Amino acid sequence: MNNIKLTQKFGLALSIALLTACGKPAQEDASSAEASTEKGAPVAETVSTEGMWMPRQLPEIGDKLKDLGLELDPKTMTDLTKFPMNAVVSLGGCSASFVSPQGLVATNHHCAYGSISYNSTEDNDLLANGFLAKTLEEEVPAAPGSRIYVTVDMNEVTDKINSKLSDDMDGATRFKAIEDAEKALVAECESDPGHRCEVYSYYGGASYYLIKQLAIRDVRLVHAPAASIGKFGGDIDNWMWPRHTGDYSFLRAYVGPDGKPADFSKDNVPYKPKHHLTVATEGPKEGDFVMVAGYPGRTNRYRTAEEVSNNFSWYYPTMQKVLAEWSEVIGSATEDNKDAALKYASLVAGLNNYAKNFTGMMEGYERSDLLQRKQQLEKDLQAWIEANPESQKKYASVIADLKQLIAEEQSTQERDLLLGYMNRSAMLSSAQRLYRLSLEKQKPNIEREPGYQERDMTRFSESMKRIERSFEPSVDQAIWTYFLERYNALPQDQHLESFDNFFDGELSGEALQKKLSAMYEKTGLTDTETRLAWMEKSPEEFRNSDDPFIQLAVATYDDRLAIEQHEKAMAGRFAELRPQYMDLLIAYYNEQGKPVYPDANSSLRLTYGLVKGYTPPAGTIKGPADGNDGKDGFVPFTTLRGIEAKYTGEDPFDAPQAQLDAIKNKEYGRFYDEDLDSVPVNFLSTVDITGGNSGSATMNGKGEFIGLVFDGTYDSINADWDFNDNTRAIHVDVEYMLWVTENVDHADNLLEEMGVAAPEGESPQ
Q: Rounded to the nearest 5°, which phi and psi values hold at 93?
C-alpha cells in the first residue's frame, strides 16, 4: 500500500524504471536561435509555476491558471470522469493519454522501451528499426505485465483510516492497523471487477484517498520510431539542452467484446474511452500557457534538513557509483552477445539515466542554498511555535521527535541499502518471492501481505513470465557477483549469518564463482514453466527442494523477515510523526496565505507553466551549445536543423536516411513554422515535473494535445527536492511527432485515426 510502502529508505524510492530520456548541450544552428526569440508573444515576467496539484485543488489556483492562459473551467477539471482528466492514464511508472476514440495511447518512446525490447530479437531488432502496425491485426502484445490504468474515482478515506488508530500504538501496531484498514478498503473497492484500487497518502499521511482505476491488461504496441529518432542523443544528451529527441510511441488499449478488461485474446476489441485528447497540428509559441497532466512518481520537497543533508552527502554519491558500476558489469557481460544486450537494454537505459540524474543532483545541490533554506525554515517554524501558546501545545516536540527518528533510521542505512540489492539475481529474487507466496497462501486472503493476495496473482505470474526476455544466466551471475562483493566488504556484524552460512563464508574469488556457477547450472528456475509451477507449491515442498536458489531463499527467510518487521515498525512510527510535521507546515504556510500542494506520490496531478528559455548558471554547461557557453541563455525551441548539425552516423547521433533527406531538401510540408524557418522538434517550459511524468500529455489552454513531456534540463534535476526559476521541462513538439509520422514512417493510418491526416487532395509536402 502506498502510504507507508516499504520502498527505498531516505525518502527516495529507487525504482529502476525505463526512464531513458536523453540530452547534451550540442550544436543548434544560430539561425534557429535567432528565430526562436521572435516566436510568439513576449514572455511574461517571472511567474512561479511551482506545484504538482491534485485535481481537486485546481479551483484554489483557478484565477492564476486563467490569468496565464487556461481556457477550461478549473472546476470541471476536478471531475476525473470528464474531459480532460479522463483521457489521462497511467502505465504504472509512466504516464500517457488517449488520443483517439479507438483506445490509441500516446506516450514516450522510453516508456514503451521495455515492450519494444521485449518484441525485439537479434534478427528483428525493433529498437533499431522501429515498428509500425498498419492494421489492428499487425499490433503486437506489449511486455507481460503492461497495463493502462484509467482513473475513474477518488474519495477521501482519512477518517476511515484514522478511526483504526490510537495514540498509544507502537510503530509495528500502527503500521499493521493502517495496512489492514487499507486492505479492507481496497477489497471493497475491487469487488467491482476489472478495477484496481489503491489507498494513497498525502502530506506525509495527514490525509488518505482511495483511488479506483480501470485496469486494462491487454496492451499492444502500435508504433515506435527507430531508436535513432526516439532516443536521438542517447545518454550523452540525457538531461541536457538543446535537445532533438523524438521521444514518443503509441500503444493501444484492448478489452473483451463486452467492453470489460480481459487478458490478451484475438477476439478482444479496441477500448473506447469516454474522452480522448484532440491532437493539435500546431505546437505552442514562446510565452504560451501549457499544462501537463500525469502521474509524477515521488518528490521530497517537505523533507527535513537532516534528510536533505544525508541524501546529498551519502545516498546519492553511493547510488551514483553503484548504478554506474552495475551498468558497466552488464556492458562487459553482454559485449559479444547481442541477444543478451537486447534483453538488458531497458535496465541499462534506466541505470544510466539514474546515474546521470544523481550526478546532476549532487552538482546542483553544491551550487544551491537548499540546505541553508531548510535549516532556516525549521528555525522559523520553531519560532512560530514558541510565539503562540496554542501552537506550543500542539507542536512543541514535533521537530525534535522527527529528527530523532530520522537519526535512528539512518544508523543502519548502509547495511539496509546493500541488503536491498542482494536479490538483484533474477533467480534469487524469484525464489524468495515464490517461497513467500507459498507461506502467504496459508493465510486467509485478507491477511496476506500486499503483493501476495489474490488480486496480485495475475501480475505475479506475469512477472515470472517477463523474466524470460530479460534474463541471461551469465549476465545474471555477473550482476550478482558484483553485489556479493559489495556485501562481503560490509563489517561482519552487518552480515546475515544465514546467508554467510549458506556460502560457507566463501564470498569472493574463485571459490565464490565455482559455487555460483554450480547454482546456475543446477537451478530449474531459468525455465518459465518451472517458475509458474512453483506458484502452486507448498512451503514443505520448498523446504525439501534441492534447487540451490530455493534452498538459499528458505535458509535466509527468517533473517530477512526480521529486518522487514523492523522496517515496518519504523514506518509505523513515521506514520505518526510525519503527518504532525506536515500539519505544522500547512498551518504555518496557510497563515501566510500560501496553498500547499502535496509531494508527488504516483497519483494523478496537474502542473502548469509557460514556454520559456532560460539562462543556466555560469560554468554549468559543458561543451558548445548554439555557439554559446551558457552566458547568453537558451531559447525554448530546437528545429530539424539541429538534427542535421548533430548527425555523425554513429549511435547515438545517427538518423534514418529518409529523415536526413527530408531535412536536406527542406521538405517541411504542413508542419513548417515560419518563425523558425523549419519544423520545431523540442521545446522548454516552466512546468513542474518529476519521474513518472514521462509520457504525460502536454496540453494548451483548450486541453488540446500539443506534445509529450519527457525530460528536464540538467539545472532542473534537483526539482525532486527544490523548484526554482531555472527549473525547466523538456517536451517533444506535436509538430515534430506528426512530421516524422507522416514524412519518415508514413504512418498514414495513425494520422487518420487521430484526425490529423493531410487534407484530401493535398500532398503532405
A: 125, -25
C-alpha distances out from residue 518 to 428, 508, 515, Å = 14, 15, 5
Residue-wise pLDDT for 10-62, tens only, equals 333 333 332 333 222 233 332 333 333 333 333 445 578 999 999 999 999 99
State the sign of the Cα–Cα–Cα–Cα dihedral 319, 322, 325, 329: negative
At residue 638, the pLDDT reads 96
Rounded Cα–Cα distance for residues 201 and 20 (Å): 28
Q: Contact, 180 vs 215, CB < 8 A?
A: no
Give the strand pairing for 88-90 and 289-294: unpaired
Question: What is d(CA 293, CA 300) in angstroms, rounded to the nearest whole number?
Answer: 20
The DSSP result for 741-762, as a single string, is HHHTS--HHHHHHTT-PPPTT-
* Catalytic residue ranges: 110, 247, 694
Kind and range of the H or E run holding 548? helix 548-591
Reading the block at residue 80, the C-alpha cell is 476525473
Give the model confidence (pLDDT) of 490-506 as tens digits. Answer: 888 888 999 999 998 77
Alpha carbons within 13 A on the beta-carbon side of 625: 24
| Residue 252: strand, helix, or coil | strand
The number of CA neighbours under 13 Å toward the Cβ of 362 is: 17
Supply the pLDDT for residue 513: 93
612 pLDDT exceeds 50? yes
3-state secondary structure of 378: helix
Q: What is the pTM of this model?
A: 0.86
Spatial contact of 371 and 309, defined as CB atoms under 8 Å apart: yes
Write the CB contacts of 209 (distance below 8 Å, at least 6 apart in sequence).
154, 155, 156, 157, 199, 200, 202, 603
Given the C-alpha cell 520502498, which residue does it identify?
7
Nearest one of 329, 309, 332 to 321, comparing CA atoms: 329
Cα–Cα dist 427/519, whole Å: 10
Q: What is the C-alpha separation between 564 and 581, in angstroms, rounded?
A: 25
Name the band, by pLDDT with cuts 50, 70 and 90, for residue 379: very high
Cα distances from 639 to residues 655, 676, 681, in angstroms, run 14, 7, 5
Q: Determine the Cα–Cα distance for residues 569 and 174; give it in Å rounded to an integer.
A: 8
CA 379 to mean position of chain CA atoms: 34
Q: Is 131 helix (H, G, I), strand (E, B) or coil?
A: strand
Main-chain phi, psi angles of 619, to 5 degrees: 85, 0
